[in-house]
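Hi support team,

I'm filing this because I wasn't sure whether my run with dinuclear copper ion finished correctly. The job status page said complete, but I'd like someone to confirm that the output block is well-formed before I use it downstream. Pasting the exact inputs I used:
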Amino acid sequence: MSFLSFVAEKGMFLPFQGSTVAPAVDALFKFIFWISAFFFLLIVGLMLAFVIRFRKRPGYTKPAHAPTHNTLLELTWSGIPLILVMVMGVWGFKVFLDINTPPANAYEVQVTGQKWKWLFTYPNGYVDEALHVPVDQPVRLVMTSEDVIHSFFVPAFRVKRDVVPGRYTKLWFRATKPGTYQVFCAEYCGTGHSDMLTSVAVHEPGGFEKWLDQASNLLNTLPPAEAGRKLYQSRGCAQCHSVDGSGGIGPTFKELFGHKVALRGGGQAVADEDYVRESILEPMAKIVAGFEPVMPTYKGRLKDQEITALIAYLKTLAAENRPAAEEKGR
Ligand code: CUA
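And here is everything the job wrote out:
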């Protein structure tokens, strides 16, 4: 992609405007930016010009009288900035109110931030790792954190708000174009901060309800191992546990099920159904050697049926590799 076509597509400074408030935020930002750029150039330019023009030359003598002040000039250079900052203040406050006042009919999604992922709970109780919303409908997010302060940031929507443990913060937007948009955590929250990414999927009219219906009925419509694979991706397991044997914050799931695992502080356990269930519900009970006790509990967040599906998925990951594992003398 050439530079020019990139600029034409993505814009020079700001990301795509994906929400109803984005144009207002951008207009205000550009106003402040260009005013600042103008005065920066004016002030620094005059300063440099004066430094050169009035530098001390040989044969310089101090004048007997120099002007002490100029009332008209001083009123002008106070009055113009005063007007400009008042325009910025009033305009900014108006945009601030728009961003902070959700319409009464907004669709509500609960958001949980935790090290290091986002969970979205829909009104029917379904939980997903990505945010899905209908296009052209106001959506209100009620957000809280399980651990430290995070910050929910969707650049394309021009909305960002801290997500704080022990309290609820709110944010709303109305997406204007179907598509997928990046979500960042914008508050440093530890090792995995920069990986605390997810996306907002904005659905075409009618598509959102269809998606929610399908996603909430995974267990009824899919075989357990396949439902387990989806849960693994959508409920945050994938952030820390790989399935290909590569390292992560938690142990890999490859060749895990049915195998012996060494525990922190000595001893070992066999990764059977009860071990997996316990590790999901009481993650601190048995920590695998070489890993930190950082996993949050899923008690109350995964149903029994979902845990069973996850176990079914783990079994497929072990079965694929059973011959190799057996050679290692288990
Ligand atoms: Cu969560 Cu940074």
